[in-house]
Amino acid sequence: MVRIILIRHGETQWNIEGRYQGQEDTHLSERGLKQGHMVAEGLKDTPIDVAISSPLERSYMTCSFCADLHSLPVLKDDRLLEINHGDWEGKLADEIEAKYPEAFHRWHTQPHTVTMPGQGGESLEDVRVRARAAFDDYVRKYDGKTVLVAAHDAVNKAIICDILGLDMSHFWQIKQDNTCINVLECQDGVWRLVLLNSTNHMGYLFSGIEQKGL
Fold first, then answer.
1. % of the chain exceeding 90 in pLDDT
2. Residues whose CB is less than 8 angstroms from the CB of residue 181 and which lie 6 or more positions away in sequence, other chains included
3. What whole-number distance in Å separates Cα of residue 193 and Cα of residue 213?
4. Catalytic residue among 9, 37, 70, 201
5. pTM to 2 decimals?
6. Is the CB of residue 45 less than 8 Å from the CB of residue 33?
7. Residue 212 pLDDT more than 90?
8. Which residues have a Cβ under 8 Å from the Cβ of 29 and sit 6 or more positions away?
9. Closest by alpha carbon to 122, among 158, 170, 70, 146?
10. Which of 67, 118, 119, 183 is 20 to 30 Å from 205 at the Cα level?
11. Residue 208 confidence (pLDDT) above 90
12. What does each C-alpha distance from 112 to 41, 71, 127, 144 come to in angstroms?
């Protein structure tokens, strides 16, 4: 069996502003840094054998805080990059809604039908395919181990939907708070979800925070 502890990165200033980050390499906010240390403390007594992160700083730094307490290096995997928002990257949610009203509405009601506009823009299916390939590799490589994976909102939601047998139309039915902890297990090719969006390490059961941008 392989156990994957899947976390989301800490808060960034763009999260606060409701600005779409995508693959822009944004930094953790002051609160995000504290969250990173809190999730590291929350996982310090949990055996972890391997640490893997998206190469974007917000995820890599969050992962590093955790890995340091286990004396582990952090491996980078480009397949864990956040969804490429194309022309939406760097823009506020309100700006996107004003310029792309139809696509923005579909993104929030039928997300599986949207490919982000502009060069490099991805669909959720694009994200699902690359994230699932990564997770399948982890299962093959790390049998019997516990793997810490640090990624992003859309990546986490896509892979969680996928292992539960849900298509990407269910994307918004999964919530991922900053530095939330999810636990996934794979035994003989069968996945199960053990823990979802846990924020207990930050002192609350649920955050009530709704972010406008990914």
1. 97
2. 5, 6, 7, 39, 42, 43, 195, 197, 198, 199, 201
3. 26
4. 9
5. 0.97
6. no
7. no
8. 10, 11, 12, 13, 15, 16
9. 158
10. 67
11. no
12. 36, 40, 11, 34
Residue listed under structure tokens 């760097």: 90
* 70 is an active site residue: no
Would you call 188 helix, strand, or coil by DSSP? coil
From the list 105, 108, 152, 170, the catalytic residue is: 152
3-state helix, strand, coil in the chain (%, to 5): 45, 20, 35
Dist. CA 63–CA 60, nearest whole Å: 5
CB-CB contact of 62 with 39 (8 Å): yes
Identity of residue 40:
A
| Predicted confidence (pLDDT) at residue 213 exceeds the cutoff of 90 | no
Phi, psi of 194 (to 5 degrees): -95, -35
